[in-house]
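Hey all, sorry for the wall of text incoming. These are the two entities for the joint prediction.
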Amino acid sequence: MDLVTEFAIFVLAAFVGFAVISKVPTTLHTPLMSQTNAIHGIVMLGGLIVAGFAHGALELTLAFIAIAFGAINIVGGFMVTDRMLGMFVKKPRKDKDSA
Amino acid sequence: MVAAVIEAGGELSTVLYVVAFSLFILGLMRGTHPTTAKKGNLMAAAGMALAVITTLLLDGVGNWGVIAGGLAVGTAVGVIASIRVQMTEMPQMVALYNGVGGGAVALIAWSEFRHGVGLGEEFPLDEFIPVLFAAVIGSVSFWGSNVAFAKLQDLIPTRPMAVPGQQVLNALLLIGVVVACVVLATSDDPSEGIFIAVLVAAALLGNLVVLPIGGADMPVVISLLNAATGLSAAAAGFALDNVALIVAGTLVGSSGTILTMEMATAMNRSVANILFAGFGGAPARATGGGEERPHTSIGAQDAAIKLAYADSVVIVPGYGLAVAQAQHAVKEMGDELEKRGVSVNYAIHPVAGRMPGHMNVLLAEADVPYEKLREMEDINSELPRTDVAVVIGANDVTNPAAKNDPDSPIAGMPIIEVSEAQQVIVIKRSMSPGFAGIDNDLFYLPNTDMLFADAKQAAAEIAGEIGNL
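and here's what came out:
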């Protein structure tokens, strides 16, 4: 892919990000921040790719740590977001008075 | 399984990546409403799974031991950490996840640098410049986020810490980093030593920029670093010719920027002011040193009586509620009042707690209905008609000085105007000032009663007393 195409994609993605996020109510800002945080864990793909051409102990270690960091970012990020958003889902009323 | 190997940059991988980032966008769009947000998050997670599987099938991806090990360790840590974390600790958890993301970017940039230089040919600038950008921003984000985490977790003092000449030092470091990058980019044989020096200088910069910022401003800092990590991931995408990285990283970069600006607006300050002014670093004015101003204090029983015989009560939660894990006790208190026919609402300041929406998450955890969580502008018009406002562990966001005293450090910050209510009860552990380090005039008003106690204990006691009435 040539640089100009990549740059066009970059600019369009930036506008999409602005457009989508400006509609989110303040109440959801914490889960939102957490969700976008999980999405940048996508950088782990870079770790997978550089692992492919890693030679020697240093490069293998770099790739290993990068993948582990990226996986923490992705898995942890989506899971805590899910936990937070679960709080907003209406739960069936438990009968607390019977206690 | 699909074809064992997909051509990197080929049609199939591109199509799969497009599907993946479409899922990210759809997921974020569903985040605009509380009832669809959970599904939205699952969609984004599914997009991520697709992107990861696609990448694993690309030709040239190998060293499976390293990949499997990294995935296993990272997944285990991520799962355990996110199950164990308390709702009150969400801000620092996000800071930590953001930090590891930035760290991954910096390490990938380093690998890519070694790969590009090791090929023996000239490192094309359209890949080299993104690599340098990713290295610098990733390193700043990693260290900056770790400092933010440490501050929020109380591992280091939350108060601003600065060395003399800090701004000059930061500027010199930044200039040094830029010069070193230019040297690297224009060199025929870029030195790895200089590259590592750039990583280290960026790490120092990350520490030095965040250390002087007070705990109250941490959410804005984390949000900004979140956006920065996104952009650095996009840069890594330019270097690796990977469209999924470019789109996802840019989405996070732009959405994080919006979020950062909104938070800053809610505090009536500019982002630059937050980053460089060292708020709260404005020395805690010589308050308290002078005369002792009179205030009235009451006990749980009196508070219960005032509340039980009111028609309308507005509860104003703040970070103290989060620290004391008082959300369930407060909800119980609200329930007791509602049983007696008192109308109960919750007034949520946009930056109450340590993150926008932090209070909403906590109260939702305690099953407080979403409709009862009222936003600041909305509730302010009702406060003059409210019988009792109960401030629980909130401080600066209720300080009338923000409205009345143009010289106050928080002048102009939008506040919840509790002083307008007929009566105010402030539940707080002591008279000590909040993050902004200033005295709160609210505490000394004639219609304000102070109830000195831990938020959770106080709310439970009041609930009990109301039940006994």
